[in-house]
DNA sequence: CAGCATCCTGCTTGATACTG
DNA sequence: CAGTATCAAGCAGGATGCTG
């Protein structure tokens, strides 16, 4: 469910904002490609962690946000990240 | 640090016992191979999550345990697993 | 802007056989 | 028992070009 090079970066970035457009995520997450962004967003969507809003506009306007369910998971993920931080500092 | 097909199964299994031999882990974790067990144990060792005790006996006797550091990480992992459980039940 | 399709590469994994 | 070595396969991921 969380496996994939960019799942966590996407979740954390998305968690920091109420809502975000694709292009913003693409800019904000260094190194990610359009392909992987979309692919991982789809999976996060399927798993109910992220919601997609399509504004049906021209030009296209789509926004993403972390769902309530996804938000419930974040504290645990933050704890793991914190552990990783302190753990990696030592190197 | 946790990425790898068997890292979490190993950690959780190891967490449930004070100490475990290789062969026990091999038996207890369905589907894992000798190779992956050793490989992942080495990495967990390098990351300080697991400790290896070699009893220097003949025949070989080696035991593994979760380190204090590793134990500190477990509550967060358990929380994520719990989330995954409830999440997967719905399917 | 948002997304899809394609090709291509490298890592991770699995199967198997072997050593002390 | 514990571990290593080798080979082949599968899949995730990167680069690129195209669509509405």
Molecular structure report:
Chains A, B: Residues 1-91 form the HTH hxlR-type domain. 2 copies of one chain form a homodimer. The first copy, chain A, contains 4 helices and 3 strands. With 91 residues, chain A is α+β, with helices and mostly antiparallel strands. Chain A has a 3-stranded antiparallel beta sheet with strand order 1-3-2. The N and C termini of chain A lie far apart (29 Å). Chains A and B meet through helix 4 of A and helix 4 of B. The structure holds a DNA duplex (20 and 20 nucleotides).
Ordered list of secondary-structure elements with their pairings:
2 copies of one chain form a homodimer.
Chain A: H1 7-15, E1 20-21, H2 22-28, H3 34-46, E2 50-54, E3 62-66, H4 68-89
Antiparallel strand pairs in A: 1-3, 2-3
Helix pairs in contact in A: 1-4
Chain A binds a DNA duplex (20 and 20 nucleotides) through helix 2 and helix 3.
Provide key terms for this protein.
alpha+beta, three-stranded antiparallel beta sheet, 4 helices, homodimer, Arc Repressor Mutant, subunit A, DNA-binding (chains A, B), DNA-binding, 91 residues
